[in-house]
From TrEMBL, chains A, B:
Belongs to the class-II pyridoxal-phosphate-dependent aminotransferase family. Histidinol-phosphate aminotransferase subfamily. Residues 38-361 form the Aminotransferase class I/classII large domain. This is Pyridoxal phosphate-dependent aminotransferase. Keywords: Aminotransferase, Pyridoxal phosphate, Transferase. InterPro entries: Aminotrans_II_pyridoxalP_BS (IPR001917), Aminotransferase_I/II_large (IPR004839), HistidinolP_aminotransfase (IPR050106), PyrdxlP-dep_Trfase (IPR015424), PyrdxlP-dep_Trfase_major (IPR015421), PyrdxlP-dep_Trfase_small (IPR015422). Its cofactor is pyridoxal 5'-phosphate. Pathway: Amino-acid biosynthesis. One of its GO terms (molecular function) is transaminase activity.
Length: 373, 373
């Protein structure tokens, strides 16, 4: 092996892995072309035209580093949420922020509570800092708040992760339940409340900012990657107490934000009309995916997100055959990684052409999968 | 304090700091406007027009995450350097990659050797992972290779940082010296050879890629932030053995790259004519800065970079007064942080208008500084 001989013991135990294989790698490895990109919970509706225009204009400023304090963006986000910019930390998507939080909280061996089958990138970061994952099964395809709380107490865990709405299942809890859960946690346990899909959730799902802003053991995560259609910009942010927001300044890559991306986020915050419109289109596309599933004899789950998880009624092998089969038609989707969630497939919303491709391919794939049994 | 009560002991000792205060913060804090941005070693000449065009086109694709394997960019870089893409790791600028390397190598208390007054962001990452900085003074405003090597041996250090050409002094060693230094290091010491300013260095400064590619204790760092004029894009890369390049995959934020930035880097690699042209303009601007310094009775140092470090002949207080005074004229520059380097100021290259502002402001500032003594 050609690697340096003295990486840390922890680093030496880690695999060189990627939490999700990208569609580009699938194309390369299988010699297939993606025609409908419906697997990564991106938004095929894209960002607002006003955002694209802002990005094109910002290109000329890209010779400059972006403001390391992210002042303007934090100020705009503060206005948007009715809080202070000192309650906000900006980072390279929620993925980047998750890594920073784990680093701030977890020493090797420390217990971290999450749901079995929950967000793999969070687990990746926990493993990367030597944390010990303690997982709680989903109940009825929803994260189990009571059991998460019990696991936290049993393990005296310094960190717990909860996504509301949930990925990969699309399920959600009402705001009241979320707030009760957050308040019941020991003050020595930090809750990562991942609200990446918050914009597309039904009213009453997302607690008010005020409800948790004063709680030093809660960090709420938001992103421009989903409803705002800016996954490739890599802008996420954490909302928390002053002390918690400042904690990121201890370790983050201060000059790490891409300038065009920051301008994109600023423009996206301005264009409320587009956001309202695209949320409606996302809801309509969810409906469309559900109808396609129903008409093929599958069971779509209710979703508060920009994707629909579909119960295919059998096991992981069966669902995997559907995922792989759709890819042969150029339809890229994904599926949950562990049983019993992996009886499902997960399809992101997208524009009409993508839905048409899905509608055409799915029955063919299901027929072939049935015949090959 | 409103922070979570159970951050790691290490995290609790770290200050919420920024390695460099940004010009935007100086503008906000002092109520001044930057008219010539000559302090961050960016390139006021900007990227190629072809790159700007590629960025504007790429905006439309920003709803998609960037390929987590960075396949296309690594392939293009491999072609450019005549190596395999498996020898390349891509990250969020050299700053981001430095943090990853420190994380892979340093456990709390481990010795890390660097030069006294060398790159502060590297020190920031070392502190962030609890490493123990062991510093070696510059000799004649150049990093001292013999003493770096001696310190490595004395401390049995797993990591040593060396920038060639150097920031903040602009000085450099010939390739032969660099290769000898790298080969003399114990195999249990990883050399970070930071070549951020490699494109602007004289012929014979940068070792051939072949000279070090097989050495498992060397990682060479490159960036699109300097000569390529893409500081705000945040694209850097490390060149090393297969095993070392793959080591980043253990811990990096795989979906962390901004899509428009990656397209910018790809376009920049294509436009060799622009790079040749801009390197000549950078050299001319260095010359201009040196002339301005000379004609004001100051002593510019020779530079292999996109900035000129100027000996102002007195101490840090004197140099600081010049830096602050220039800012009052809207001319943003920086200076080295520690003695004896801090007798100097550091001015980045830039277009004619910026040089004219500098030329106009500097004598006024020097006069005022002299009068105030």
């Amino acid at each position: 092996m050609s690697a340096f001989s003295r990486f840390t013991p922890l680093a030496q135990t880690l695999p060189s892995t990627v939490p999700f294989v990208g569609p580009e790698a699938i194309e390369r490895n299988r010699g297939l072309a993606v025609r409908a990109r419906l697997g990564a919970n991106e938004s095929g509706f894209g960002p607002a035209p006003s955002v694209l225009e802002a990005m094109r204009k910002a290109a000329e400023t890209t010779w400059m580093y972006s403001d390391p304090e992210n002042f303007e963006l934090r100020e705009a986000l503060a206005l948007h949420h009715g809080i202070s910019r000192d309650n906000i930390a900006v980072g390279g998507g929620i993925d980047g922020l998750l890594g920073e939080i784990v680093r701030l909280v977890i020493e090797p061996g420390a217990a971290v509570v999450t749901s079995l089958g929950g967000y793999p990138t969070f687990n990746y970061h926990v493993n990367g800092f030597g944390g010990r994952l303690v997982t709680v099964p989903y109940v009825a395809d929803r994260e189990d708040l009571d059991s998460l709380l019990a696991a936290v107490r049993r393990e005296n865990a310094p960190l717990v992760y909860f996504a509301n709405p949930d990925n990969p299942m699309g399920s959600w809890w009402d705001a009241d339940n979320v707030v009760s859960f957050a308040r019941a946690l020991p003050e020595t346990t930090l809750l990562i409340l991942d609200e990446a899909y918050g914009e597309t959730a039904p009213a009453g799902t997302i607690p008010s900012i005020d409800a948790l802003i004063g709680q030093p053991n809660v960090l709420r995560m938001r992103t421009f990657s989903k409803a705002y259609g800016l996954a490739g910009a890599r802008i996420g942010y954490a909302i928390g107490t002053l002390g918690n927001a400042q904690a990121f300044d201890k370790i983050r890559n201060h000059f790490g934000m891409a300038r065009v991306s920051v301008q994109a986020a600023l423009a996206a915050l301005e264009d409320r009309a587009y956001l309202t419109d695209v949320i409606a289109r996302i809801a309509a596309s969810r409906e469309r995916i559900s109808q396609i599933a129903f008409s093929n004899g599958l069971s779509p789950l209710a979703s508060a997100t920009n994707f629909v998880t579909i119960d295919c009624g059998r096991d992981g092998t069966h669902a995997r055959a559907i995922v792989d089969g759709l890819m042969e038609h150029g339809v890229f989707i994904r599926m949950p990684g562990v049983a019993p969630l992996n009886r499902c497939i997960r399809i992101s919303v997208g524009p009409q052409d993508d839905m048409a491709l899905l509608e055409e391919a799915l029955p063919q794939v299901l027929q072939r999968v049935a015949n090959s049994k």
